[in-house]
Design brief:
binds arginine, alpha/beta, 13 strands, Rossmann fold, four-stranded antiparallel sheet, 3 domains
């Protein structure tokens, strides 16, 4: 498979490194875009890296490497500072890259990674709300972040099986069933299932404070459920059904889909084998009063419970069954969980138990995320701490509507509506995805819906601007892809250099399971493009060469913006 862009540059440098008698893993050979055109187009610190290991002076190593560069890719090479190697790349290279990118961006980005399409498999567990409750804010995060990671891997040629592991099993459903049977009003439940189920559950807890017997009744109902009682099973099925209908409304608006919805209850009949095996292998040892536990490696951690003294299984037991099932069914290379950081201990325990059981050789990834932090006090406290996602999405669209009406005066009412949907949902998504998921995610309406700065409207506006330039030039992207680049201005070259970094941003986002690398890349590209656009005429350029150069760059930017936003699950409006 042919490599492109940064990968080509890396390869040439890698060859030179090897010829000089050194070796470095390609993954550790970093090539960065320079900050200042004075220092070339790209720069690598590989000489410093090698010198450290070899006990030599970095400048000497750099000199060796440079001497061994055998390629006409570079028009100039220079050693700078403590041993950086700076390179100037020939213009023809950029032309070919941009042309390829315009012709078929899907192929273009896959070539970089160099894996055969579909040869690697990932199974993912994202979104995973709990039934009988409205979806929480952290589920919005696990849904949006998860979806972008999945889309990115698929773009890079991976096969991804996306699973939605809904919370639909556990002792709490015994309590809920008890509450439904005791206080439930069928009509009211049918009219407004989720709110009713939630308040019945709350009522159970209130009453249980006064009457401790209730806990036992709840347990008894769950036991019946486990033993296959028909009525209880039907009740649970009903609860799951109405909950999925609610979730589906949100998923539809966010435009996310899952290959599987194997919730916790799916593993109900798959836990016995796990328990037996773990027991046989001595991984599950005796805890208190007949309970089974896994001892931690770290003496500061509590032991992990896999079977309670009354024989009941736990969340952890089902999670272990999930890993076993995924392994049997898909033999994946990666297993991914995009889950709230609050579950860190749980995931530590689960991975520890999986490893002890030898469940899989897949890389197990816990891509955790922080809390949503609201700038707007009203948001976090509204309706007793339950923030309705539906209302958040409605508000985003309403705010976007006001904005669109004010700005896009030449659009029809229907166009404004469509634009505000795209902008509203896009802003919510981009706000989440442009932040480092490890930290708390700040939710700020003003920043989110601003046309300036790192926001969805800014990027959408840039993409539509590029699109309309191409249209106004009366050419197609295909036409533009036949043009040649002939840079005269640094600003043009800046855009070209930034374009070359796109696949690297995707790769990095995939490696670290962090979509914010894609978002931040797109923001940088948009800024470079807008700087060029504001300084240099495109359609009225002073020569045909200049015009074609800028049109090819514009077409490339448009392709990348739309493609990258697509990975983030964000649409680009036709007009805005
Ligand atoms: N349903 C759980 C919750 O909302 C998250 C499930 C995460 N996935 C897992 N395999 N444990 O807290």
């Amino acid at each position: 498979m042919k490599k492109r862009n940064l990968a080509v540059i890396k390869e040439v440098l890698h060859e030179a490194v090897k010829k000089s008698g050194f070796d470095v893993d390609l993954d550790h050979l970093h090539v960065e875009k320079t900050k200042d055109a004075k220092h070339g187009d790209f720069s690598t610190n590989v000489a410093m890296l090698l010198a450290g290991k070899a006990g030599k002076r970095p400048a000497d190593v750099a000199e060796d490497v440079v001497k061994n560069i055998k390629s006409d890719l570079f028009e100039k090479v220079e050693i700078a500072g403590p041993g950086f190697i700076n390179v100037w790349v020939v213009q023809k290279f950029y032309t070919e890259e941009c042309q390829l990118l315009c012709e078929n961006i899907e192929d273009y980005v896959q070539e970089i990674v160099g894996i055969k399409f579909g040869s690697k498999t990932m199974v993912s567990d994202t979104s995973h709300p709990n039934v009988a409750k409205p979806m929480g804010v952290h589920h919005l995060l696990s849904t949006i972040i998860g979806d972008a990671i999945i889309k990115n891997y698929r773009t890079l040629g991976w096969k991804v099986v996306s699973d939605n592991y809904i919370g639909d099993w556990g002792t709490q459903f015994g309590k809920l069933i008890y509450a439904i049977k005791t206080w439930g009003d069928k009509k009211a439940i049918q009219a407004d299932p989720i709110d009713q189920l939630l308040s019945l559950y709350v009522r159970f807890h209130d009453e249980a404070e006064k009457n401790v017997e209730l806990e036992q009744f709840g347990r008894a109902e769950f036991k019946k459920l486990e033993d296959g009682d028909k009525e209880n099973r039907e009740l649970l099925n009903y609860i799951v059904k109405v909950s999925l209908e609610e979730f589906e409304k949100i998923y539809k608006r966010l435009n996310v889909k899952y290959d599987l919805t194997n919730g916790e209850s799916f593993y109900e009949n798959k836990m016995a084998t796990i328990l037996e095996e773990g027991r046989k292998n001595g991984v599950f040892v005796d805890g208190n009063e007949g309970a089974w536990i896994v001892m931690p490696d770290d003496p500061n951690d509590p032991p992990a419970l896999v079977k309670k003294s009354d024989g009941a299984t736990l969340y952890l037991t089902r999670d272990l069954a999930q890993t076993a099932y995924w392994e049997d069914e898909y033999h994946p290379d990666v297993m991914l969980w995009v889950v709230d950081v609050a579950q860190s201990l749980h995931f530590k325990q689960r991975f520890h138990a999986s490893n002890k059981l030898g469940q899989t050789s897949a890389k197990m990834v816990y891509a955790n995320f922080g809390r949503m932090q609201f700038k707007d006090k009203k948001m976090s406290t509204r309706k007793g701490n339950i923030l309705k996602l539906e209302e958040v999405l409605d508000e985003a669209e309403e705010r976007a509507f006001a904005l669109a009406k004010e700005r896009a005066t030449e659009l029809s009412e229907a166009e404004v509506k469509e634009l505000s949907r795209i902008m509203g949902i896009g802003s919510i998504k981009y706000n989440v995805l442009s932040q480092n998921r490890i930290q708390n995610i700040v939710f700020d309406w003003d920043r989110m819906l601003s046309f300036e700065g790192n926001s969805a409207p800014y990027l959408m506006y840039t993409a539509t601007r590029a699109k309309s330039l191409i249209k106004k030039g009366d050419i197609s992207t295909r036409d533009a892809s036949k043009f040649d680049l002939s840079f005269t201005e640094t600003l043009e070259k800046e855009v070209a250099l930034q374009l070359m970094m796109y696949p690297d941003a995707l790769r990095r986002a995939a490696d670290e399971f962090k979509p914010n690398h894609i978002a931040n890349y797109l923001y940088a590209l948009a800024q470079d493009f807008n700087t060029m656009y504001n300084a240099l005429p495109v359609l009225n350029a002073d020569s045909e060469d200049h015009k074609n150069t800028r049109l090819l760059l514009t077409a490339s930017v448009q392709r990348v913006m739309e493609h990258g936003l697509g990975i983030l699950g964000i649409e680009v409006p036709e007009k805005m």
